[in-house]
Hints:
mainly alpha, 7 helices
Amino acid sequence: MRVPRIIAVYLLTVFFTAALISPWVYQGAVYLGQHVPMFSGWGIGHVPFDRYVSGCLLAVGTVGLWPFLRTLGIRSLPALGFRLDNNSFHLWSVGLGWAIAGLIVLIGLTVGIHDRSLQLHYSLHEFAWHFQKAGVTALTVSTLEEVIFRGCLFGVLRKGFPFAAAAVLSAVVYAILHFVGHPPNPKIMNWNSVS
């Protein structure tokens, strides 16, 4: 039971630390957005609080990976299932292709059922700016999430559980972080704010 206990301590530490620092990060971002001209155009002071909580969870989880993996005795990428060989690029390309195809289908469905609409009135410069902004965010967040959830968490869970249980547990943790409803922003944001 050593592996499940270490995973539980890691997850509790990540959640607790992120919950403690999120209000401070949020207040700092609002201050920068309102008082520092360099940051005023970024819109960071207008981002909902739950996005800062998610960002803090991801940041704390990433910083905590090294001691977490060292505690479990994992000291190499192949030990987590990451491998670089002649077939890796092919597998990566196939996975990327399926992800793009899924995104296209999802966009088509949401536009088809009129849940979303395509905004085609932007200039080429505006399209490029939005594409760059979304692309950098998507690449950064998706890479970190894949490393944390599919690589580290799932790889570690496979050492203490059967394959199916490890897959379900890593998916449950991912779902809790992404699909649980977000509370509204508190009217006053302090370290002890509740909503």
